[in-house]
Amino acid sequence: MGTLDEFRRLGADVRNWGRWGDDDELGTLNFIDAEKVAEAASLVRHGRVFALGVDFSSAGPQGAFAFRQNPVHVMTVDGGDVTTLARYGVGWSRNLAAHQLGEFFTDNPFRFNDDMIVMPLQAATQWDALSHVYYDDLLYNGFPAGSVTSLGAYHCGIDKVDAKGITSRGVLLDLVAHRGAQTFLEHGTPITPDELDRVAASQGVTVGRGDIVLVRTGWWSRFLSTGDGAELGAGLDWSCAAWLHDHQVAAVAADNLMVEDPVSGVEGTYLPMHMLCLRDMGMMLGEYWDFQALAADCAADGVYEFQLVAPPLRVTGAVGSPVNPIAIK
Ligand code: UVW
């Protein structure tokens, strides 16, 4: 178990503030340059596409924390409206929506359905923006934490990374296969930097500058079989922040709820790797990704690298974003 002093020392070691300028809000996505994007595209050899996003639905993994709910999806115009509104809508002047829909649906064959979704941006497959987590009242690159207001994140919002795509070479590290786990990595068995090296070596893949590393813990497969979104499983030990820093990784994503191990490896704080990655390094975290089909394909052909395309939504000032990432081989 590390101490808060050790945590702060590692924070100082991996801190990228000023590395790409005092006004930088991209963080380690800066490692992805034009050559890297072209290299990633050259990894597409067969045209096999793997969607890495999970369902956005009421059956999602939220519920354990009162501050996060599963998506609420409601229809705002549907076939049930047609008959009634075509007959009574026009002239229903005190209900403007009914009146307008009545005009659409009267005396012509045109019909349509509309819907809306209400959800925490962190509910399902997502990117954490750099403004998601902080400590000592400072965000990445020293921006004040108070710059995230009720109006959104003025600094380090998800909209700030739009220019990066996000696309790069993706590398899957399959911890489930490496450990020979039944479904997922058992709680209390955090993933160490040495183990990441061993997995990469056994898969015959290297991790380098600008890569987006995908860590398979099996948590999502487990959730699909149990429906228990509160089950903890295992994730990256906080010391993996140094490994990600040393390898000049652009971003890291996992198939679990928090990428890092749910048991804090630092006495006196929660989620130390979140703080080191998002706030000190400027490295985005992806959570609730689904690697099942991709992992099966990688095991079959022995190729663990691919083009990854994972653009967040341009939600102005948001501290995270839903994403439907695509891996292409
Ligand atoms: C927090 O860090 C609070 O949440 P998440 O694991 O979704 O990033």
Could you walk me through the main structural features you see in this protein, from its secondary elements to its overall organization?
With 329 residues, this protein is of the alpha+beta class. It has helices at residues 4-14, 34-41, 79-89, 96-105, 175-179, 193-203, 219-226, 240-246, 272-281, 292-301, and strands at residues 49-51, 72-77, 114-118, 126-128, 148-149, 152-153, 167-174, 212-216, 251-254, 284-287, 305-309, 320-322, 326-328. It has a nine-stranded mixed sheet with strand order 1-13-11-7-8-9-10-4-12, sandwiched between helices. Strand 5 (148-149) and strand 6 form a beta hairpin. Helix 1 runs parallel beside helix 9 (272-281) and helix 3 (79-89) packs across helix 4 (96-105). It starts with a helix and ends with a strand. 45% of the residues are buried. Residues 122, 128, 132-133, 257-258, 271, 274, 287 line the site of acetylphosphate (UVW). The site of acetylphosphate has 9 residues, from loops.
- Say how many strands there are: 13
Number of DSSP helical runs = 10
Q: Specify the biggest β-sheet.
A: 9 strands, mixed
Proportion of beta-strand residues: 15-25%
State the shape. Answer: globular
Series of secondary-structure elements, N-terminal to C-terminal: HHEEHHEEEEEHHEHHEHEHEEE
Task: State the strand order across the main sheet.
Answer: 1-13-11-7-8-9-10-4-12
- Alpha-beta classification: alpha+beta
Bound molecules: acetylphosphate
Helix content: 25-40%
Radius of gyration: 22 Å
Report low-confidence residues grouped into runs of 5 or more.
none
Arithmetic mean of pLDDT: 96
Protein name: Cyclase family protein
Pfam families: Cyclase
